[in-house]
Amino acid sequence: MEVNCNGRRAVVTAAGSGIGRVIAETLLQNGARVFVCDVVADGLDELTKTSSEIGSLVADVAEAGVVDRLFDAAAEAMGGVDILVNNAGIAGPTARVEAVTPEEWRRTLAVDVDGPFYCVRRAVPLMKEAGRGAIVNISSTAGRLAFPLRLPYATAKRAVIGFSDTLAMELGPANISVNAILPGYVLNDRARRVLTAKAEASGRSYEEMQQIVLGRISMRTGVTEQEIADMVVYLCSEQGRHISGQAINIDGNLETYSGMDKLDE
């Protein structure tokens, strides 16, 4: 079975590095035209140097006016939009609820929830004009499992699942699919930095800390950024057009975050 996104036009947020970059590159490799944004110019510059066909704009999706400029630029560059991947998100603070500041709470929800909303409200008219569309929202296993010390992030990622479910019902009659992807423990630089910090705080080695985390996953392994990108391509392809309203876990069955708040003690 050949799966591709030939002729489709995709906007991917936070694509300067990490999961977003792999998604953008994989969509391009599978026939889509791609326009990306990120808050960090250096990452975008590096991406567009290696993939010159990709258009880009420095943009913070938490700002509605900036998102307007993003979609104006994307629609002009590609002639429309029929794929949106809401990948932008921040981790927020790691702290007990009484130590979380209102500013930290607001900023996490602004990027992780407001941002996808601002993007969808601009993408949907373009998709309706095209007669089709696919929206993929990157949530997290933290959106289905309680995650102590990560209240703003877990709240935001659970909101993304409800956001996706409701949009799938609302937009289905317009031939627009909407799904959420819930990555688990992703084997990337960000995860390594987090584990290194926890290991140092608890007096454990990196390897010991990794085994504790993997012990909470049924398949005892993390996942790759490419696995997430491959699922995005499938959901946005002709073959995946009737998959909608789903919260798809890519996590090897992460069972629980219980006890994670004790690992640095």
Question: What are the main properties of this structure?
Answer:
Rossmann fold; alpha/beta; 7 strands; 8 helices; 14% strand; 265 residues; 7-stranded parallel beta sheet
The percentage helix is 40-55%
Main β sheet profile: 7 strands, parallel
- Shape category: globular
- Measure the end-to-end span: 50 Å
CATH hierarchy: architecture = 3-Layer(aba) Sandwich
β content, as a range?
Answer: 5-15%
How many E-type strands?
A: 7
- Radius of gyration, Cα only, in angstroms? 18 Å
**Mean pLDDT score, rounded?**
94
In the sheet with the most strands, the strands line up as: 3-2-1-4-5-6-7
Helical stretch count?
8
Global structural class: alpha/beta
| CATH H-level homologous superfamily name | NAD(P)-binding Rossmann-like Domain
CATH class: Alpha Beta
CATH topology: Rossmann fold
Unreliable residue runs = none
Q: What order do the helices and strands follow?
A: EHEHEHEHEHEHHHE
List the domain count as a whole number: 1
Description of the molecule:
The protein has 265 residues and is α/β, with parallel strands linked by helices. The chain has one domain: 3-Layer(aba) Sandwich (Rossmann fold). Helices cover 46% and strands 14% of the residues. It has a seven-stranded parallel sheet with strand order 3-2-1-4-5-6-7, sandwiched between helices. Helix 1 (18-29) packs across helix 8 (225-236), helix 4 (102-130) packs parallel to helix 5 (151-171) and helix 6 packs across helix 7. The radius of gyration is 18 Å and the shape is globular. The N and C termini lie far apart (50 Å). The model has no long low-confidence stretch (mean pLDDT 94).
